[in-house]
Write a structure and sequence with these properties.
Chain A: Belongs to the binding-protein-dependent transport system permease family. The complex is a heterodimer. Chain A contains 11 helices and no strands. Chain A is mainly α. Chain A has a single domain, classed as MetI-like (MetI-like fold, Orthogonal Bundle), CATH 1.10.3720.10. The two termini of chain A are 37 Å apart. By secondary structure, chain B is mainly alpha-helical. The chains are: A mainly alpha, B mainly alpha.
């Protein structure tokens, strides 16, 4: 028991060192912009850059739309599979996990070739079309996380009974989905939404290859051209990820309280 | 169901199929294996090889260190309150990939990074003079571990929780030492989970582009970066070779994921 604890502490200290050093290093580096003293110059320079605001705003808008589209696609599907097609569940689950198997760069490669200007659906021909394509690409990347979250949320519900109750009171499918299922899985959707947000904000490959002015390619550009600003950007990006994960924790804790105590 | 099917078909299945089919096509549409055969040229093989080596190294060390940390937290007799923060942090760090991760390591282990400078000024050790370079196989491996280790912790902790206390007690009643318990009881049960996670980590690092690109530009020629350059500007001067390159990536990550799923199903026999 004694030796085990010593080994555990050694492992933990090693882990602490490995994970803390890059974070401290980044923070320290981001403050070094003015010679000799620590200052917030790098942050000031980043925040006052109009391109930062544009790309950051663009990515936030994209993230919000991705969450909406993702929820619109995933919630009805997960509900329908649970209610009517339980036999299809393995298939749907497999499909939702595919974006983790196929590297994103391959997926976007397919998009570029499949939806070019001379194809049946020339999405890359116009700016709006490319935006839509990027949006749907992000939805694909977020699919595994969104589906998992919603499906777990549905597990705690008695979907069949709820649906029958609603139907016998005269509700149609839209009413059932919008006023019964969605409020019940809202917490799950939210936790999927935050992870989607974290993914979309920092995403680089899709945005870069589709030539859209998103935050990821902007960060890369700054990284290639400036010294201290990248570290400041990394600190900002890491804080966003932290906030998203913190919100997921908060939301799941909140959901535990709303459940009836047994 | 219809929107989902249409969506998945149009934006997931079809694009992938297009690449796969393209890998077996000539420029005028006939069937061919030349594209795949063309993959076997030294420069492309070399980049596959370095990609595989990096992925193996990060998966192996990610598994080893992640396992040690997860074991320390679950079984090592550390205070209980440590567990929550470590799991939360793992959730954050496993998602902290991409461009910012590269910046973080440049700021830490780059030529002017904190650790480099501290080692030089306080201990007189210039790691760059000793052949260390962040923009290399070794540097990339260290960087990737930042998201690989947390992923391992997240996946393996439930498996470690599944080790029943009774097994340990039974083993020690029969006179087994701690080492014997691990070697004869615990590890054989965990083996499928461990190997499966290894495969998953392998696939995870094999497909990663952003971190490597932001870190090294295009100086380190791993497969995803080569493909990135190919999509941008057809550097291979053969679009169909690009398809073949992408197809090769799908095959490799596909095999790795298949191993993961297969072994995961096996490991669930014990951990119930």
């Amino acid at each position: 028991m004694r030796t085990q604890r010593i080994w555990s502490i050694i492992a933990l200290l090693f882990g602490l060192l490995y994970f803390a050093l890059p974070l401290i290093g980044t923070l320290e580096f981001s403050l070094r912009a003015r010679r000799g003293v620590y200052s917030l110059d790098a942050y000031r320079s980043v925040l006052s850059d109009p391109q930062f605001r544009e790309t950051f705003g663009y990515s936030i808008v994209m993230a919000i739309f991705t969450i909406l589209v993702g929820a619109l696609i995933v919630v009805p599907t997960a509900y329908w599979v649970r209610l009517k097609l339980p036999r299809l569940r393995p298939v749907v689950e497999f499909v939702t996990l595919l974006p983790l198997v196929i590297p994103p760069i391959v997926i976007v490669f397919g998009y570029i070739r499949l939806y070019n200007t001379s194809s049946f659906l020339p999405l890359t021909g116009s700016i709006m079309g490319t935006n839509v394509l990027l949006l749907l690409g992000y939805t694909t990347l977020a699919l595994p996380y969104m589906y998992r979250a919603v499906d777990t949320g549905l597990r705690t519900l008695d979907v069949a009974t709820l649906t029958e109750a609603a139907q016998s009171l005269g509700a149609g499918w839209t009413t059932i989905l919008a006023r019964l299922i969605l409020p019940n899985v809202l917490i799950a959707v939210l936790s999927g939404a935050f992870i989607t947000f974290a993914i979309v904000i920092g995403e680089f490959v899709l945005a870069s290859l589709l030539n859209r002015p998103a935050f990821g390619p902007y960060m890369q550009l700054v990284g290639a051209n400036k010294a201290y600003e990248p570290a400041a950007l990394a600190v900002i990006a890491f804080s966003i990820t932290w906030i998203c994960m913190g919100l997921i924790q908060l939301v799941t804790r909140f959901s535990k309280h709303t459940k009836a105590k047994r | 169901m219809v929107p989902f099917t249409v969506f998945a078909a149009l934006f997931l299945i079809l694009p992938t199929m297009y690449i796969v089919v393209g890998a077996f096509r000539t420029a005028d549409g006939g069937f061919t294996l030349t594209n795949l055969a063309n993959l076997f040229q030294p420069s492309i093989l070399a980049s596959y090889w370095i990609s595989i080596r990096i992925s193996l190294a990060t998966a192996f060390f990610g598994c080893l260190i992640g396992f040690a940390l997860a074991a320390a937290v679950t079984l090592g007799g550390l205070p209980k309150w440590l567990r929550g923060p470590i799991m939360t942090f793992s959730g954050v760090a496993s998602n902290f990939a991409g461009v910012p991760l590269a910046f973080a390591f440049l700021a830490t282990l780059g030529r002017l990074g904190l650790v480099t400078v501290v080692l030089k000024e306080w201990f007189g050790v210039n790691i760059y003079a000793h052949g260390f370079n962040l923009l290399s196989f070794f540097g990339l491996t260290i960087t990737y571990l930042f998201f690989q280790i947390p992923l391992m912790i997240l996946i393996i902790t439930p498996a470690l929780d599944g080790l029943k206390r009774e097994w340990k007690e039974a083993a020690s009643i029969l006179g087994a030492t701690g080492f014997q318990y691990w070697r004869i009881v615990a590890l054989p049960i965990l083996w499928p989970s461990l190997l499966g996670t290894l495969a998953l980590l392998f696939a995870n690092s094999f497909g990663a582009v952003a971190t490597a690109y932001a870190l090294t530009g295009s100086s380190l020629s791993i497969v995803p970066i080569m493909l990135y350059a190919q999509i941008r500007g057809d550097v291979l001067q053969d679009p169909h070779l690009g398809y073949a390159l992408a197809f090769g990536m799908i095959v490799i990550t596909g095999i790795a994921n298949f191993i993961y799923v297969f072994l995961r199903a096996r490991s669930e026999r014990w951990v119930k």
